[in-house]
Write a structure and sequence with these properties.
CATH topology of the largest domain in chain A: SH3 type barrels
CATH superfamily of the largest domain in chain A: Ferrous iron transport protein A (FeoA)
Helix content of chain A: 40-55%
Largest interface: A-B, 42 and 47 residues
Strand content of chain B: 5-15%
Number of helices of chain B: 27
Radius of gyration of chain A: 20 Å
Oligomer: heterodimer
Number of helices of chain A: 8
Largest sheet of chain A: 6 strands, antiparallel
Structural class of chain A: alpha+beta
Number of domains of chain B: 4
CATH class of the largest domain in chain A: Mainly Beta
Structural class of chain B: alpha/beta
Mean pLDDT of chain A: 76
Largest sheet of chain B: 7 strands, mixed
Number of strands of chain B: 10
Low-confidence stretches of chain B: none
């Protein structure tokens, strides 16, 4: 764990603990020495990520930004990984998989839940568009990728909540043809896998 | 009679495949002019119409789905609308896909331009069982909405007269103000305030609210503009903070938030104005669509289409070009003195142009517009997307590549169907290395007739491998990231003969104006080299390179120089220089193969260079030509070495 990682985890734990921070517990949970945690705390305070409030701590605006940025990056990595594993059909229990492979803490998980707001309780129902068979229906829940691509997909009508029907799937990782908002669109395989849908 | 009014400037906007060009062709006929937008490989199509006492200038903007900065086309369109401020924008909307089409309409409203909506294909929509309350739609949008059928011309005149009325202010409009949800509105208002206060100069060109929305969408182009204005970075900093807060509330990127809200507004509008009478059944187009994208039938049909394109280009093109050449030379040759290389070069250039345009360029455009207008091209692109991905392009790139086998010239012009400059460049480079009909003649008459067809086919296979390898390397070398396929699959329809003929005519005319002068002057220049005795000197300079690097005899230098004019001249000149038609007397089998391989790659012919210059301007044309020379040399050396080690003499 790098010192940067410890800092982010520290911020995460401050949020999770509602401002209280038990250095002993943090050191145990992160599996690093107390000295390292103490150093990270001093560092976070001096960099203006945290400030003291009575006995506890609170995140400054910069601290919150840092945490959000980290979670967003984590979110993208997670979704990316999820897409790959779903295609390989390996993930069964999404929630524990999520928690196990990425120690993002409860606050981080909450953030992701709110990001993927339309996610159903049963995460197994969310798949990349490429995983739907021909003729299947899905509801778009999330787009991931660079901002140019995401904006383009949204412009073409693929906004969260819209229903799509898979009309045709190309041969050998070919494009996916879908019907959406009364039009027919072909999305290259690499584009289609960036559209997460909930099976209907 | 009133004095002639000032020219009314109309800009046509709309999604791709909504009949915008059909509308444009209906009103302007063949009087249109096709050019390029300055510095872009985007077509600029314009025309003049007389309409009653008015002179109307119509500009057909490229077909787009949104006004973001996704493709060159979108940037061109919105810059024109915002900066040039046409008197009125006519938005052609496909009545059978109202939801997606209104997305652009809303954005045009946000640009605060006088707008008229031409509701096209109401007949198709009616067949689908859609009933659209036109008056209500007009009331909701606050601009005139005119139903029409562009193909038959119904309603076209009314659209035009409404447009003129709006442009001249005789019809008052009260455009809908597109409003968003509470959080977005707050953000937009705050950024608008900032812009008005800090960047008043920028707000004179673009509507402040529009700029604010684009900043919220993190539009690269608008961010760039803001940054270039004094105080810009300060505004951007504050805007970033506002975006950040918005994304936190919504838990989604601001772009998705804004697009979603636009679509939900559209959803409400559509619900009000559209009623679906009957459940639409599978149409013939749907059936054809499923058939032509099928993983067995689709590829079979594609092969048949490819085969017929090949046949028409090879058989018809070759036949016609032979006939025309014979005929024209017989007519012209006695009239000009052949002893002056310069003059004879000019004449040859002119003949080359004729031999190229009529047999190859015209059929090419007819075929292309037939395939395009019928709706087949997107299906071919769908089938070949995964193959083209290997070189960082997507399915659409296949079409120009295929046509390159007939003639590289129209294929290069066809590169514009790709979205970005990056894609166009990679594709252009690949096309110049595709053996056109002329190069096929060389391969066949040298290698084919002396060493057998199997060797000729091997050269073809080698060429294809090199083309894809070069494409892959270019994909790594050219800056930027490859873009994936996001393509609309428009319904199939019966192509309109008028549209095909007009589009072909206009582009052929344009090609003649651009390429002919270059072709004729270039030919004259090479001919003049002979007059000045420079071709001898050039041949002497080239000989060592040919001898030592490629293992070719010095006698091949002059044919190669003339091959730049027209590739098939290589073989004619070789016969002339060698003084025999029996090439086995001057070239060993190995030399024949190396010579053929080198000729296939070494440099695009003058006509292709002219076409590239038209599309890519000087710098990229030079780079692509140099890349050709480099690849030709490298591949020829390798082939020569391989043959030597295999013991071929």
């Amino acid at each position: 764990m790098t010192s940067g990682d410890i800092t982010v985890e520290l911020l995460e734990l401050v949020v999770e603990g509602g401002g209280r921070l038990d250095l002993e517990e943090v050191s145990r949970r992160l599996g690093v020495s107390r000295e390292e945690v103490f150093k990270a705390l001093q560092d976070a305070l001096s960099r203006g990520l945290l400030y003291r409030v009575g006995e506890g701590y609170r995140l400054t605006a910069i601290g919150e930004d840092l945490l959000t940025a980290h979670r967003e990056e984590g979110l993208h990595k997670l979704v990316h990984r999820y897409v790959h594993e779903t295609e390989a059909d390996r993930v069964r229990d999404w929630n524990s998989h999520w928690l196990r492979t990425h120690r993002l803490g409860r606050a981080g998980l909450e953030f992701m839940r709110s990001s993927l707001r339309s996610l159903p309780a049963r995460i197994e129902e969310v798949v990349p568009l490429t995983a739907l068979p021909e003729g299947a229906r899905g509801i778009v829940v999330y787009l991931y990728g660079g901002r140019g691509l995401v904006r383009r997909l949204a412009d073409m009508g693929l906004t969260p909540g819209v229903e799509v029907v898979v009309v045709r799937k190309g041969f050998l990782r070919g494009p996916v043809q879908i019907a959406v908002r009364g039009t027919s669109l072909a999305l290259g395989y690499g584009v289609a896998r960036r559209v997460l849908v909930r099976r209907v | 009679m009133p004095k002639p009014k000032r020219v009314v400037r109309i800009a046509l906007a709309g999604n791709a495949n909504v009949g915008k060009s059909t509308f444009f062709n209906q009103i302007t006929g063949a009087s249109q002019h096709v050019g390029n937008w300055p510095g872009k490989t985007v077509e600029k199509v314009e025309g003049f119409v007389k309409f009653g006492p008015y002179e109307i200038y119509v500009l057909d903007l490229p077909g787009i789905y949104s006004l973001s900065a996704y493709s060159e086309e979108e940037v061109v369109a919105r810059e024109y609308i915002a900066v040039e401020k046409p008197d009125v924008v006519v938005d052609i909307v496909d009545a059978s896909a109202l939801e997606r089409n209104l997305y652009l309409t809303l954005q045009l409203l946000e640009l605060e331009v006088p707008l008229v909506v031409g509701l096209n294909m109401v007949d198709v929509a009616a067949k689908k069982g859609f009933r659209i309350d036109v008056d209500k739609l007009s009331k909701v949008l606050g601009v005139p909405v005119v139903p029409m059928v562009a193909v038959s011309g119904r309603g076209v005149g009314e659209v035009l007269s409404k447009a003129v009325a709006v442009a001249l202010g005789s019809e008052k409009v009260k455009p809908l103000k597109v409003t968003y949800g509470k959080e977005v509105e707050e953000a937009v208002e705050r950024i608008t305030g900032l812009l008005l206060e800090k960047l008043p100069s920028l707000c004179k060109t673009y509507p402040a609210r529009w700029l604010a929305i684009k900043l919220l969408e993190e539009d690269e182009d608008v961010i760039d503009k803001v940054l270039k204005t004094p105080n810009g970075s300060e505004v951007l900093e504050s805007a970033r903070e506002i975006i950040h807060r918005l994304e936190k509330v919504h838990g989604e990127s601001s772009q998705v938030v804004i697009a979603s809200e636009r679509y939900s507004l559209i959803g409400r509008i559509v619900e009000e104005v559209l009623s679906v009478e009957k459940r639409s059944l599978m149409t013939l187009s749907d059936r054809l669509d499923l058939l032509t994208t099928h993983r067995v039938w689709g590829y079979l049909i594609l092969s048949a289409v490819v085969a017929s394109v090949f046949t028409s280009v090879f058989v018809v093109g070759n036949l016609l070009s032979g006939l025309i050449e014979e005929w024209v030379s017989a007519l012209i040759t006695p009239l000009v003195p052949r002893n002056i290389g310069f003059v004879s070069g000019l004449v040859d250039g002119f003949i080359a142009g004729l031999v190229l345009v009529i047999p190859y360029v015209i059929p090419f455009y007819l075929l292309l517009f037939f395939l395009e207008d019928s709706g087949y091209l997107p299906r071919a692109a769908f089938l070949l997307d995964s193959l083209m991905h290997w070189v960082g392009l997507h399915g659409k790139a296949f079409i120009p590549l295929l046509l390159g086998y007939g003639c590289n010239v129209p294929a290069c012009l066809g590169c514009r169907i790709m979205e970005t400059a990056r894609e166009k460049t990679i594709l252009g480079l690949m096309i110049t290395m595709i053996p056109c009909a002329a190069r096929t003649i060389i391969i066949l008459s040298l290698v084919g007739s002396y060493l057998g067809v199997h060797v000729a086919l091997a050269i073809y296979a080698l060429d294809l491998a090199v083309v894809f390898l070069v494409g892959r390397l270019a994909n790594m070398a050219v800056a930027g990231k490859p873009i994936g396929l996001i393509m609309e699959m428009p319904p199939y329809r019966v192509p309109s003969l008028k549209v095909i003929l007009v589009e072909t005519y206009v582009r052929v005319k344009d090609f003649i104006f651009i390429a002919f002068p270059l072709l004729i002057l270039g030919s004259g220049f090479v001919g003049a080299l002979g007059d000045l005795g420079l071709s001898e000197a050039l041949s002497n300079t080239l000989s060592p390179f040919l001898n030592f690097v490629l293992g070719l005899p010095g006698v091949t230098a002059i044919p190669l120089i003339f091959g730049i004019l027209r590739k098939e001249l290589t073989i004619a000149m070789l016969a002339e220089v060698a003084g025999t038609m029996d090439f086995s007397k001057v070239l060993t089998p190995r030399q024949m193969i190396v010579f053929s391989v080198f000729t296939v790659f070494y440099i695009p012919c003058i006509a292709t260079i002219a076409a590239m210059f038209r599309e890519y301007r000087l710098k990229k044309t030079v780079i692509i030509s140099l890349a050709n020379i480099a690849v030709a040399t490298l591949v020829s050396i390798l082939v020569n070495l391989a043959l030597m080690s295999a013991g071929v003499v």
